[in-house]
Description:
The complex is a heterodimer. Chain A is an alpha+beta fold. Chain A has 2 domains: 3-143 and 242-384; 158-228, Jelly Rolls (Sandwich). Helices cover 59% and strands 8% of the residues of chain A. Chain A contains 19 helices and 8 strands. Chain A has helices at residues 3-7, 13-25, 30-46, 56-83, 88-104, 108-130, 138-146, 158-161, 242-247, 256-273, 285-304, 318-328, 333-361, 366-380, 386-406, 410-428, 430-433, 442-446, 449-462, and strands spanning 164-165, 170-173, 178-182, 186-192, 199-205, 210-213, 218-221, 226-228. Chain A has a 4-stranded antiparallel β-sheet with strand order 1-8-3-6. In chain A, strands 2-7-4-5 form a 4-stranded antiparallel β-sheet, with no helix packed on it. In chain A, helix 2 runs antiparallel to helix 3 (30-46) and helix 11 (285-304) crosses helix 12. In chain B, strands 1-2 form a two-stranded antiparallel sheet. Chain B is built from 2 helices and 2 strands, in the order H-E-E-H. Chain A binds chain B through residues 3, 28, 31-32, 34-36, 38-40, 42-43, 45-48, 138-140, 142-143, 146, 246-247, 251-253, 255-256, 259-260, 263, 267, 277, 279-281, 283-284, 286-288, 290-291, 294-295, 298, and chain B through 4, 7, 10-11, 14-15, 17-19, 21-22, 25-28, 30, 32-33, 37-40, 42-43, 45-47, 50-52, 54-55, 57-59, 61-63, 65-66.
Amino acid sequence: MSALAAVAAWLQPALVVALAFRITAGAPDAPWLALGALIAPLVAVLADGGPAARNVVTAAASAVSVTLLLAANLLVAADGALLLGMPRWLGAALGAALALAAGAWPSARRVAVPALVVAVTALLLGPFAVAPAGGGAPWNAWHRSGARPALTFPERSPWVQSGKWFARATTLRFTEGQRVVTVAAGIYRVVEHDAAPPTVREWRLAAGDTLTLRPGDELSVEAGARLRFEAGRRVPGAPASGAEWADAPTRGPHLLPMAVGALLTVLGGALALVPAARRGPTAVFGPLVLLAATLAAIGWGVYAASAPDVVLGGALPAPLLLTPTAMLGASGVPLALLTAATLLLLLAVTAVALRERLGASASMAPQLWLAAVVVAAAVALWPLDAWRVLTLALGVAAAVWAPARLATGSSGALAGPIVGGMVFLAVAALPTLAPAAPAWLEALARYPALVAAPLGWAAARALPPDGDREAPTR
Amino acid sequence: MSGPRGRRIGIAALLVLLAVAPVLALAPAAPGAVRIAGVSVLWWYAALLAPVVATTVAVLLLVRETE
């Protein structure tokens, strides 16, 4: 397989938009996730192919992982539809239809590689187009965003003028007083922390009602809620200042388990999804397209940070779909539409590549592909966090699917996935089984592959190659 | 250097490049927060230096093994 075709399953819309979102939001893990998203598939392309291990455990793991990956991408399609003013279900349904058709089209494999190059090139256009309005080169934009004294709602923000939707239920923490107007009727809960114990108030508000919030208040909103905020006030939930966005003061040695968990998840996920590539002069295009896609995601994330309210609603594609109009006004609409079309093209390429990976580990049966897309579409109807679904999918791939690639024989290819899968299930169930688990276990609960993947890989490598086993004695 | 050995060294180099990012970010005294030309060392490393070096290493290994 060519290096370009090998990386196609990796460069998913969910991964690209999640990286941009986390950079825009100033998430502490954004730098190493961005680097991991590039280096993990490079390691997988260079690693040995391993034995052609097909067994019932890897087949099940690949089916679960591919279904969750599709769900993460359909959740992004649903969030994208919401951002463009359409119902969420329509985005999920259109995305599912596209994934189903692309995966089932016999000639899709031939056009998938050129389509990937076109999509990544189009993704790179966005940062170049918004650069003049965003402070010039990305490093200048980063410096400008990092020097802001406070992250406030601009006058022209759609959150101020007409109100925007929240893609999922969230809790907003206010650090200064603000009057919030409800644009859509719904249930709103405010927790006031000015007295002990905190006072909880819950209202069913109609469109046009106003909530007055004081510093320290928390406002919980349902998925689909639509609110209007005051211009010039701090964006709730955003970093307090540019310096906080740039340097994330929550970073410290205590985050090390979380960082290792995230990187093991990404590395293991890539080992499962990205097969070894054919060597040769044309292989240079695989790493170059990975580099271009990563730099595009970083560029989008950095330029979108100049509009701190872009990520308020929690929709992952917001930095890519809202930044053009936030920075260029009405003239940014064509760029926003081009970016939406690019993400759809990337979804189609992803579907083709995932179907191929599923076929290599489980079956090419059209019924299996249909079932994966239907289940993924059903999952995407709920307003779940696409990033959590993506990390869960990569975690399953890292702990249960990847050990088969690292095994030296068929017994290791069976034992590794069994060990990885059992540990993954046990660790993933920790928050349910022990809700009062200490805080240091949070990294395990968030990234079960932190423990499950190394154990699965060790079990896969511990068993001898097929040729080394003693012949059975009669 | 043989193909498999070169590939193993290349993969180790890539993993070291990856491991440096959380070390820069999480080490006490936050060395990654030092600014060079207005941008933190962490972001120069994670968004420019390491990606370019990693891509170069991968390209060289993928092309070299056919020679």
